[in-house]
Amino acid sequence: MDVPQANVPQSGNSESRERATIGKSVVIKGEVSGSEDLYIDGKVEGSIDLRNHSVTVGPSGNVKAGITAKSIMIQGKVDGSLTASDRLDLRKSAVVTGDVTTQRIAIEEGAFLKGKVDIQKEMGKGAAS
Amino acid sequence: MKFFRSSSNQDAPQAAAHKLTRRSSGIGEMVRILNSQEGLCVLDVGATSANNIQFLTSQGHKNYSEDLLRASLDPALRTQDATGNTVIDSKKFLDENLVYPNGRFDIVLCWNLPDYMEESLVKPTIDRMWSQMKPGGLLLAFFHTRDAGPDSTCYRYHITGTDMLEMQEIKFAPPGRPASEKQSPRLQRVFNNRHIENLFRDFASIKFFLARDNIREVLVVR
Q: Does B49 touch chain A if contact means CB atoms closer than 8 Å?
């Protein structure tokens, strides 16, 4: 992954997946891609593409980029389109401005979403929750 | 038109976060249309609701979500007029919100937005919606009657797929304040029938449904 490793990637027991973390003080401008899960609590401008992995934007995360991933969880602020081939979770602190394409979506009370929502059932099984 | 702006919020009821239900003739008509057609373009300007997104997209409709009440509370919209009074910049609001091509939407779910939105934004917002609706498109809005008090709870509405709506109290933290200080938005005014007809004067027709809970539902055809 061509992302500065602000924090050491988590490598717990054999069941846990590798995850890169962009910490609160990190600012990235450009294209982020890779083959592991990504946690963003810093600032990213550009694009994020992790098609087979998950992206989590933490409470302090501020992303001005389109995000493409298998699953996406938003707790912070995102200004850009979200494409999740499996699932999109918007937690109560999420502020999302951009179009959303996903197979399943969960939105907590209090989350803010401004944009077009496209649920693509053919992306896989399941339904929105 | 009756305004409530000077009222205190200290006695506002502490409504529970759980969902209440109410029967809605307006949403009943909307649901019948949504169930009988496919590929409609629907704009929901209420507080973000996973239920609504799920219902609309599962029916094959295109869903656009935009929480206009929350957007209207953006402190950046506050500016000062020539006399130094704080006013809302409606041009900036419409530059940043409701930015869609003309004639895009078949249905607009306006919910209770006009009753809770800043006065100066209401007419420009409805006018913008008119432009962005297709001829023959439908808009659903709820208006409190004069019997409703200033502390009437502001709700987020969830479509259930029938003529029943689920309602959940909305609370926002004032700008710059912590989430622990969340308050329910205050009813700004009460429209009478003439005001409502004037608000939608550019639309082709308007139908009123009077409910028992001090709410008039209005179904407007573009």
A: yes
Taking only residues 122 to 141 of chain B, the set having a beta carbon closer than 8 angstroms to any beta carbon of chain A reads none
Dihedral angle, C-alpha A84, A86, A89, A94, nearest 10 °? 0
Distance from CA of B124 to the nearest CA of A (A): 19
What is the complex's ipTM, to 2 decimals? Answer: 0.77
Give the Cα separation of B48 and B54 in Å (integer).
Answer: 11
Whole-structure pTM value: 0.82
Q: Which of A77, A89, A93, A109 to mutate to test the interface with B (most CBs of B within 10 A)?
A: A109
3-state helix, strand, coil in chain B (%, to 5): 30, 30, 40
CB contact under 8 A, A128 and B64: no
What confidence score (pLDDT) does residue B151 get? Answer: 78
Task: Kindly state whether B188 is in contact with chain A, defined as any CB-CB distance less than 8 angstroms.
Answer: no
Asked if A74 contacts A57 with a C-beta cutoff of 8 angstroms, the reply is: yes
Give the architecture (CATH level 2) of B2-7+21-221. Answer: 3-Layer(aba) Sandwich (3.40)
Return the domain boundaries, chain B: 2-7+21-221
Express each pLDDT in B9-58 by its tens digit.
433 333 445 788 989 999 999 999 999 998 999 999 999 888 899 899 88
Residues of chain B found within 8 Å of residue A113, distances taken between Cβ atoms: 48, 65, 67
